[in-house]
Specification:
about 325 residues, alpha/beta, Spore Coat Polysaccharide Biosynthesis Protein SpsA, Chain A, 8-stranded mixed sheet, 3-stranded mixed sheet, 10 helices, 11 strands, about 40% helix, globular
Amino acid sequence: MKDRPFISIIIPVEKGTQLPLSLFRNLKYPSSRFEIIVVEGEHPSFQRNKAVEKAQGEILCFLDKDSRPSSDYLEEVARSFNSGDIPGVVGGPAIPVSSSYWMSILFSRILTSFFPLLWLRSRYKRRGKIRASDEKELIGCNLCVRKDVFQKTGGFNELLYPNEENEFLNRIKRKGYRILYNPNLKVYRRIEGGLKKFLCRFYRYGKGRGNEIRVEGLRPNLLYLLPLFLLLYVFSLFFFHPWWYLFPLYLYILLGGFSALFYSWKERKIYLFLLLPLSFLVHFIYALGMIKGLVANRNSSPKTWKVEIRKIKGFSDEITL
């Protein structure tokens, strides 16, 4: 593969969304070696698949409309795919950018702390070195795939959203392609909205995981059942609560309390004590979303969906300020 592969950046947006080309003016990469494709619609997994049909790059970079790539983003993409054993997929963190508002900072800490998300926090925080990884660390708003691998494996499951990238990555891994996590391949996403919007995000993630379980079964998703077990356990406490049965609850509170205390002390922000109750809410809401995904009807047929594909920058185009 060439030192500067041709790269197609693909961004799904809602109908009528205007994405300014100037958002990408900081990219340090030859302008003649990348294109930007925006695809309008209502089903991102379907939109991405249709955009790939028009993409001419060797590498496909899937971003979201609020993903802001670092200036060396495409350079990191090129370096990652030019490694000795060429990977099929490379991803990195979507780093949350909080405002000065205390609740925004709290939300950012939830996404990057060990207690609420365990190793999943690698999706939101630079951790470690470049390494072999899987869907537990990669995220759909910062995902780069070789086009030939994407086509050979059938692309995204169009009946899944969210979690279409998780099922896709599991499929990629089963096919034997290498998946890399590159902590330097980073995008930034601003945290906006209040508590309701933040929790709705995890409800949607949980629902997506429930749908994914219906598609590929329990085995690849056992780890993600932990919030559901927690919810069922807490519910059972109303009916059965001998002293020994409370140990898991005490352990949960101890771990969450230690995490909240640690970050409150480290960052000198007393309100980070709210990490414990907010972590519980995140786990609780995620579990409710999973239940919904397990029992709800699936999405409508792709035959009824429409998209509009716009190439806002071709390989020969320059980005004007």
